[in-house]
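In the design runs reported in the main text, the only information available to the sequence generator was the tokenized backbone. The following block is the verbatim input for one such run; it is reproduced so that readers can re-run the procedure and compare outputs position by position.
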């Protein structure tokens, strides 16, 4: 597997494909197991830059990269067909006289080649092939559309391409797919949004598209399992930009996310952990009957990451609302917190301490 995926998916320490990529304060991404082993050995420098790290370094989950890695094999083209020279494939793709079958073959082969060749991805964008790829994203043929989306996802993996793809009009096409595409195409389209949003400037640009966030929120409602997960991941990626949080809230994302969280989509708590930072988000959460109960469920049964976001979200609500504090105590949150004191995750420790202080503070019951 590691030889088939882009080098960017490999941990700089283990050189293996990352299963749980995290970002160090130096800005570099590593697999959690590898960097934790490095830190546990007493190192307090970045393995790449050699710059000093804090005494207790934070490991920030790289959700965008994790999502791209986990979905990459799902958009892989067939390997049974022989590959032509890249320039020949590009010419066949862009030529008006090429038969549709030839164009489909070119899309398929280029998707396969660009999957593990970053230099080819750059050459392809420089060759002027992007408009042709986007044209096929607009195709009414679902097979052509899916292959074009797969190629577009590959091209978006390079940071140097991300802004250019947005400038070429990729977002408008992808948002259209989110609304009317097939389930597989919608899932890939949401993943492309996540990939493009890795570059900070794109978060604002994507959120400003009139139907981008509404389309992702609708996908949370109408999509199937993979579509919902990718839509939530894309929302998490773009809602680190403050204005996009309010847009998501205005689209009614909060009650939908709480319902999905209750149904077991843990990715929803990560998005709620961003939306709770807004006053409007906290207000919407407090309007949802059983919100605190759902968050308590995450504290009891969630993964380490889910518990981390659950603690943060609940603490924000308890600091904001007296009734939330009362309900959290009623649901036995202090007892649950006592059961989490042995956690080694630094963020969980910090959020746990904050929540205990909030619930043990001056909030009057009733």
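Verbatim output:
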């Amino acid at each position: 597997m590691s030889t088939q995926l882009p080098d960017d998916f490999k941990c700089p320490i283990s050189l293996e494909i990352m299963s749980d990529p995290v970002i160090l304060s130096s800005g570099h991404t590593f697999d959690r197991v590898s960097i934790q082993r490095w830190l546990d050995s007493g190192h307090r420098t970045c393995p790449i830059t050699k710059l000093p790290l804090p005494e207790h370094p934070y490991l920030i989950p790289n959700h965008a990269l994790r999502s791209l890695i986990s979905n990459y094999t799902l958009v892989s083209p067939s390997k049974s067909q022989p590959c032509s020279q890249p320039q020949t494939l590009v010419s066949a793709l862009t030529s008006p006289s090429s038969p549709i079958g030839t164009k489909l073959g070119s899309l398929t082969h280029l998707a396969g080649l660009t999957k593990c060749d970053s230099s080819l991805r750059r050459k392809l964008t420089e060759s002027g092939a992007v408009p042709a790829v986007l044209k096929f994203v607009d195709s009414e043929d679902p097979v052509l559309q899916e292959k074009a989306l797969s190629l577009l996802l590959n091209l978006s993996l390079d940071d140097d391409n991300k802004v250019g793809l947005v400038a070429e009009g990729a977002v408008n096409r992808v948002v259209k797919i989110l609304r009317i595409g097939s389930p597989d195409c919608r899932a890939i389209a949401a993943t492309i949004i996540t990939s493009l949003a890795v570059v900070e400037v794109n978060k604002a640009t994507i959120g400003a598209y009139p139907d981008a966030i509404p389309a992702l929120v609708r996908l949370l409602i109408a999509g199937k399992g993979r579509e919902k997960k990718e839509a939530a991941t894309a929302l998490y990626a773009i809602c680190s930009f403050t204005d996009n949080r309010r847009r998501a809230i205005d689209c009614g994302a909060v009650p939908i996310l709480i319902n999905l969280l209750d149904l077991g989509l843990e990715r929803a708590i990560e998005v709620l952990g961003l939306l709770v930072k807004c006053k409007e988000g906290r207000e919407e959460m407090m309007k949802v009957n059983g919100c605190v109960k759902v968050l308590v469920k995450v504290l009891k049964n969630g993964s380490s990451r889910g518990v981390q976001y659950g603690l943060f979200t609940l603490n924000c609500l308890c600091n904001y609302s007296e009734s939330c504090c009362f309900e959290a105590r009623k649901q036995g949150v202090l007892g649950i917190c006592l059961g989490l004191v042995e956690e080694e995750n630094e963020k969980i420790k910090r959020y746990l301490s904050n929540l205990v202080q909030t619930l043990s503070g001056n909030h009057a019951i009733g």
